[in-house]
Amino acid sequence: MLDEIKAKLKEKGFRLTPQRQAIISLVINPGPKLTAAEIWGLLRPKHPDMSLDTVYRNLTLLTELGVLIPIAGAGKDGTRYEPVTHSRHHHHIVCLKCGEAACIDTCPINPQFLATVQNQGYQLLRHNLELFGLCARCKPEDRCYV
Ligand SMILES: [Zn+2]
Ligand SMILES: [Zn+2]
Ligand SMILES: [Zn+2]
User: Fold this and answer.
1) How many Å lie between the centroid of ligand 2 and the Cα of residue 91?
2) What torsion do the CA atoms of 60, 62, 67, 68 make, to the nearest 10 degrees?
3) Span 2-133: which CATH code?
4) Could you tell me the distance, in angstroms and rounded to a whole number, from the CA of residue 94 to the centre of ligand 1?
């Protein structure tokens, strides 16, 4: 994965700086999908001169290169990023309390709907659909009144 990203960066004329490499190594990990601020917090001990702005710029670049998928989160700067490892198009549900984002490996948008949009003269490039709720850990305990 890292070699593939290196090649893409090189192709577009970007260098793999130590800071960029640190950000990439973190975001291509499987595991919790992170926000820019969380990435910054995790990398700062090792890279004290890294700014949050640098993290944002790199996440934007990696998204444009097709390496990351942004998942719109709840609230400002809640966007999380996941690596395009399983490249099948899918959607997400985001917990409004803890911000965790889970993949829903299916797409409910039907082809007729997309055709309707194309018929309005648009060339459709992509779509995005996020669901919001409370995850199993954050939802209130199911109460039993029996
Ligand atoms: Zn939660
Ligand atoms: Zn996903
Ligand atoms: Zn979809």
Assistant:
1) 6
2) -30
3) 1.10.10.10
4) 8
